[in-house]
Specification:
The protein is an alpha+beta fold. It has one helix spanning 44-63; strands at residues 8-15, 22-28, 34-41. It has one domain (12-63). Residues 1-22 are annotated as: Disordered.
Amino acid sequence: MTENSSLEIKLRRTGGVGPNANWHWEIHDSTGKVVKTGSAVGPEHKAFATARIAKEKLEAASGK
């Protein structure tokens, strides 16, 4: 189930290490404009999953 999306996730660590790492994520549209931002604490894969869920919600909202 692949779908072409115009939204892109950008993730960066803002501090900490391991389970205490602080992550800042941004969701950009095709023009590079920031649509949504957020943060998460923990391993990188959990921060990315948080951003992915937000991205999927944005895609679902725009599809209605």
